[in-house]
What we know:
It is built from 14 helices and 28 strands. With 572 residues, the chain is of the alpha+beta class. It has 4 domains: 7-169, Immunoglobulin-like (Sandwich), CATH 2.60.40.3650; 172-253, Zincin-like; 272-460 and 548-572, Neutral Protease, domain 2; 467-541, Roll (Pdz3 Domain). The strands form 7 sheets. The protein has a 7-stranded mixed sheet with strand order 4-7-2-1-11-14-13. Helix 4 (296-313) packs across helix 8 (369-387) and helix 5 (319-334) crosses helix 8 (369-387). The radius of gyration is 27 Å and the shape is globular. The two termini are 46 Å apart. The model has no long low-confidence stretch (mean pLDDT 94).
Amino acid sequence: xxTKSLVQFKIRIESPQLNYLNISLIYDSxxxxxxxxxxNWTPGSYLIRNYSTNLxxxxxxxxxxxxxxxxxxxxxxxxxxxxxxxxxxxxxxxxFENSVRTNFLDSEFSFINPPSTFLYPExxxxxxxxxxxxxxxxxxxxxxxxxxxxNILYAESFDELFDSPIQLSNKKSYFFKTKxxxxxxxxxxxxxxxxxxxxxxxxxxITEYENKLMKISPNKKYLFILxxxxxxxxxxxxxxxxxNSFDPTILYNNFEYKKLLGLLAHEYFHLWNxxxxxxxxxxxxxxxxxxxxxxxxxxxxxxxxxxxxxxLKTNLITSSDYLDEINSDFARLEDHLGEELMSLExxxxxTWNKFxxxxxNSINTGISYYTKGAILVFCMYISILSQTNGKKSxxxxxxxxxxxxxxxxxxxFTKSEFFYSAEKVTGVDLLKEFDKYLTNExxxxxxxxxxxxxxxxxxxxxxxxxxxxxxxxxxxxxxSKIYKQLPIKDSNINLNDELISINNYRYSKEKxxxxxxxxxxxxxxELILSRRGKIITTKLKTSIHKNxxxxxxxxxxxxxxxxxxxFFQKET
Length: 572
């Protein structure tokens, strides 16, 4: 028998087509005034999301069903006044936002993101919790990493509950085992049988390699939830599970299928990096306010480096595929001015009001801690290989952090502790070599690190560039993004201007390449635009956009060849 929980919830599914979760809460009261709060954000997704927007119909009663005084104190806090032994709170959550961090309910399935669902008593995050489901025959199965007895789930604390997504479904899951860990994957959506079998086999390769790489498996059980929903992409990590969303209509494309594998490898690697190996700001959590840190690049940059690296090592992508992905990351930074205006630490710190809420100018003023973080770790990895003649690896730093801080000290680490640990394990002073790329708005000398392992980035072609992106809307074409580093600043061009013609050629998608082929390099062209119904004529000087590729160099030192072989060596 499970110990009676201090906070008990009941979720009733009455009419899925209305998209409401009906929730009841029972709390053994101790104080006359008690506050109940709903989290404002979900760990792993660093934005205040004001989940209480979807909460309504809230009432409070005592155990005799007498109504209690309930006062809303702010957007996410309600205060109950009572002298009774129990507080009963009923409320509804509107659930129709299909993402990995919000609630969704219809007649096919329901995804429950606990932080956006469950109220918690103030200052009692350590309370035990139970959740009973009344499904009314709408769904056959409840999937979660929480302890489960029939239709009741149990959590040792609200922190555990908030880290454990729940899926209500009529689909059966699939299982495979990696060492001591049983893996379960629920695929919500339609997938061809051959694709599903390939996916499970490939996922087994990924999990086996990651467990071997990190030398320890944190879980006896792990749950993959995969939502196959058109026009979606994303994932969210949890301590014993992950939620992943992908467009099934493009899975026939091998490149897109590998992109799905990369997503799954990324979220699974978070098992170690961020859920256990973490900067000190990421636990315990304040669910009401931003949890600021300049080290978010450690959580996501490291993981973003390892996701495709894992696919490389398991032979799920080729060396050429891998280098194309690295090159794409280089290009994302080089094509915009953001890297000259935002440091990697600033990108980490300001994620709460910048990364998750981009505007059309974000590409010119900011960078992604995912992208630059991954590049930085790529260079760190190579630097360690080079300075230790291939005897040490960046992975050894992660293994040490896991043992020293997660297992022994049971806490996160500071920036100085991270770099001290790195030097202790590898003998390489990464702080001295790389701190300037963390704290300053400067670019990493990528070619230097490529050369250390016998690689070179070479130009393969170039094309004319107008310095803006064009988006089609109802058969018309509009300026959707402007790249400030190109010489567009001297032209009278604004976002959302309708592009009518270039050099007297009426613009269309079909004529795009033809128009560009008619324009000489760096020549001045004439544009006719429409802005709020007014015709504008302006001149623009075109520029050249160069495309690159990373290749293996034949004429390199023996050391570079050896290090390159170590880096690209496949797992057998």
